[in-house]
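By way of example, we now present a protein record of this kind:
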Amino acid sequence: MKNQTDKIIAKLKKVSSQKNRQGMARFGINVKYALGVSMPEVRKIAKEIGRDHNLAQKLWQTKIHEARILASIIDDPSMVNSKQMDTWINGFNSWDICDQCCMNLFSKTSIAFQKANEWSKLETEFEKRAGFALMASLAVHDKKAENKKFLPFLKIIQQEAKDERNFVKKAVNWALRQTGKRNLELNYLAIQTAEKILKQPYKSSQWIAKDALRELRSSQIQARLKRG
């Protein structure tokens, strides 16, 4: 008799396709453990399951790409501790699992700001990316956080903009842009940070700063922020 984890994996396999898997690969997703299930299908299954912390742990242990993303959606943020978060980021092998875990789960934990700070100083590419992906997720989803909680992030972003690795520099840029889109004060400070980064003699710094400044100074973003 199949247990619940086996039943969910069977359901994922049923809605998987080689075409989806090939599409994932084209987007730079590591498909070594992937089945080829679309995100709408993953979210549909997650909705059927609801919150389940214990099941999330079992799904994560399967190493299956979509099962791990599913785990990040159904897990209960209030039951997630520091040890679990560190264990999970240690298992990141693709940018999308990193980002999904940060958006769906880690940004909703009570230690999210602490972890974003910690992880941004790590060496491994996806673990370090997680620090900046978490900063970006907090900037978007934590509507109640005060501006002062984001100020340390801007200092870290400036410091780490020199990292040339693709998945790190894109996350640094993401964190800078999302922080600068929260409100007018943070927009001003993010633009200041980008201008400082622009003076750094690194290709990654130049790309991060120019791309961020283009968006943060745009008439569309400025108008939205002024409307409040």
